[in-house]
Batch of 2 targets.
Target 1
Amino acid sequence: MESYKEVNRIVYGKHAGQFKEFTKDYLEYILEDANLFLDSLNGKKILDLGSGPGRDSLFFKESCFNPVCLDISKEMIKLCRKKSLAAVVGDLENLCFKDNSFNGVWAYTSLLHSPKEKFNYNLSQVIRSLKSGGVFYLGMKEGNFEGFLESDKYPGIKRFFSLYRDEELSEILSQYFEIFHKSRVKLEKATFLNYLCRPKK
């Protein structure tokens, strides 16, 4: 496994409970987006790509959808299963699902942990996994950086990030998708860029 994956896997595994606590209210910031995502689906099956402890998937399940959590951290998947969520340990860069498996793919702040050189390939994996008419939600952190970063919430701990500008993301996404909704969430120390889109026909 590449070093950046191993570093992130270890960090999120070791601090799974802490991460769960820090991010428990994050869905509130994108609740309108989450509801629009669900309203846009033509079926019930959702892949929560890089699900963490299953916060968003629990909301999907409580909204009568059928989410599947995927995360590289075994500890995160354990937290998902404690919520009675379907969950598998897996690599978002090498999806283990058959083609045309999901009505929606939800990737909120997960693909930002993958190198920029792999972003286009990751998008192709998303498209492969979607059923016809499927919907993709992408949440990324705004910036212009690629490498290891330390955050205030995890002092002394570095994780791998790829940060993008809106223009950069929109240009890449538009090669493969029709973007039908965008939002920007500005918090105290970070801004998040969110996109709701469908694969081009």
Note: The two ends are 34 Å apart (CA to CA).
Target 2
Amino acid sequence: MGEIFCDLRTQRNFKLSDFTRVGLSKSTLSDFESGKSILRFDKLDAALELMHIEIAEFEYFVNGMHSDYFVEICDEIEVANYTQNVVKLKSINEEARQYDSEVGNRMIFLATQNLLYGLTEAQEREIIDLMFNIEIWSYFELSILSFVVEHLNTRLTLSLMEDFWKENLHYLKVRKYREKIIQIACRASVKYLREGQLEITKKLLRKVEKVLLSYKKDLFCHNMYRFTSGLLDYHLGNRRQGEQKMIASIRLFEDLNLPEMKAYYQKTFVEQTEK
């Protein structure tokens, strides 16, 4: 990764000293480029921004000019989950099971196993251990968490969410990471609401609302938040207001030409209100 960064830096005629303006000393950057150390995500993002390089573009270079395999699989799982394509989920699950001695494939297996059948207690402990041992979150790990967060032990997910929220908010600067983080928070909120944990949900959604004040043009994230806050209103007894928010959110997903999102949230709306 550092070597790729060095190639891009020299190609664009940036000196090591140029990056002091984003808080990176020459020695720190030199150590990163030579593979002696790694950079925090926010520092790497700031350095790339200085060179007018998107984080997704940099990942593309790092991955040898092709998309990361695990990220592509997670995108396929996401679509299959939204559209309830059980055949596709089973296919991915079986493929991952055959190679699950590798951590990435094991995580994919557990994620799809959860979406299809639910996890055993042992599998739930395993995925929680894997999540708590992550030091540097990539889009892949965030995706895995988004697939399992609704079905894990409440106490453990609260601890995991608290740790993540305290240490990793710098990821929010990058849109695709922000979308995934807000999605995780909203899915966790739906879980807590199902369990009647209203105060926990209010606390989590206040954090989401505060974060989104800095990203007012991000319709996708705001719309996920609006639906979930509407669901909270509904559970608090403000049923009419809650339904209006959720219906407006579903309509906006349709206007944004996201039929799979519309279908997913429509399903959630029906499940949560027809009781």
Note: The mean pLDDT is 89.
